[in-house]
Amino acid sequence: MATYWLSFRLQVDGTYNERYKNLTDTVRKLSTKWWVEASSFIVFASASEIDRIASAISDVIYNDTDVAILGMPDFKSARLIGHHEDNDIFELIPFIKKA
Questions:
Q1: CA torsion sign, 80 to 18 to 52 to 62?
Q2: pTM of the prediction?
C-alpha cells in the first residue's frame, strides 16, 4: 500500500462536471482511503502501481486540454498526465515522467 497525491486542472466546458466526477470516482475505486478537502488536490492510499493509476486517470480526462500531476510523497516518483505547455515542471521535479 502506498500514499499518492494528485493535483489537477480540468478545462471548464460543458463536460467539466462529468469529467470531474469520473476522475474522483476513478481515484475512489483505486484507493482504500482518501483526503479531498482541498480543491483540485487529492491525497489517497492505494495498492495500485503509479503507472496503473496514471493510466486510469488518463482514461477519464481530456489529454489535449486537461492536466494532472500524480506523485508519491515517500518516493521520488511522479507522473505528468495530459496537456502541459510549460516544460519548467521537468526542471522543478527532475524525476517526473510524462504518462
A1: negative
A2: 0.89
